[in-house]
Every structure is written in C-alpha cells, then in structure tokens.
Amino acid sequence: MSTVDMSMPILIVDDYKTMLRIIRNLLKQLGFNNVDEATDGSAALQKLRDKEYHLVISDWNMEPMSGMQLLTEVRADTKLKELPFIMITAESKTENVIAAKEAGVSNYIVKPFNAATLKTKLTAVLGNF
User: Fold this and answer.
1) Best CA proximity match to 39, nearest among 21, 54, 25
2) Residue 82 DSSP symbol
C-alpha cells in the first residue's frame, strides 16, 4: 500500500527548460503527474505562496534567485518551513552539501541522475511509494 499521494502537487524549479522537461519526465515515470514549474527562485516563491505544494525540487544554480536563496526563503516562511525540499546541483562539493544541509534541505541530487536515483531520494524524503 502506497503511503505517498501520487497526485500530490510538486513544484520543479530550474532556469533551464530542458532540465525542467527531464525532471518532469522522470517524475512521470515514477507516477507523479501533478507537476508545476518555475524558471527561477522568485517565481517559485510566488507559486509556493499562491498554492499548496507537497514537494519542491529545485536547481541550485539559477539567476536572479538561486535555489539556495529559495531554500532560505522557504525555511524562513512559517507556512512553508516544513515543506520537503530537494536540491539538484551539478557540483557535489562537500561545502555545498554542508551549506544546503545547514539551510534545511531535505535531500540532495547531483546531476546527471536517473529515475532510480530520483526514486531513492524521494523515498528518503516522502516515504515508500
């Protein structure tokens, strides 16, 4: 019995359209179809304040507001601070991982990744599905 609501709203954030499409397709492969997208942190923040999401998957490196700044804003917002937040990055530098953990990231994915990796990370954050 799946404990995860597969129809839950998920927000994916990346300033690179191709990456948004890749993440959306991977989520679809895993059975998640209720996916919205934003192309930068400030647009994402607006969406998060307008609609209730159950998960954010955000790229780290974006302009003008980075994924790290978005995470900081989310964690500082009383309505959003418990929201599961997964960060995607091209760099697995230890200091980045530590900074993200300290900022309250739920999990961390290094590019490139596949559906299996995404499923592992989602399971760690959301539970089994």
Assistant:
1) 21
2) T
Taking every pair of C-alpha atoms in the chain, what is the biggest distance, in angstroms? 42
pLDDT, tens only, 67-122: 999 999 999 999 999 999 999 998 878 898 899 999 999 999 999 999 999 999 99
Spell out the residues 6+ positions from residue 82 whose beta carbon is closer than 8 angstroms to its own: none
Measured at the CA of 105, the angle between CA 68 and CA 15, to 5 degrees, comes to: 40
Q: How far apart are CA 67 and CA 87, in angstroms?
A: 7
* Length reported for the chain: 129
The pair phi, psi for residue 66, each rounded to 5°, is: -75, 170
Q: Give every strand in the sheet of 55-59, ordered side by side.
A: 35-38, 10-13, 55-59, 85-89, 107-110
- Confirm if 69 and 85 have CB atoms less than 8 A apart: no
What's the rounded Cα separation, in Å, for the pair 67 and 124?
Answer: 20
Structure tokens at 60: 């780290």
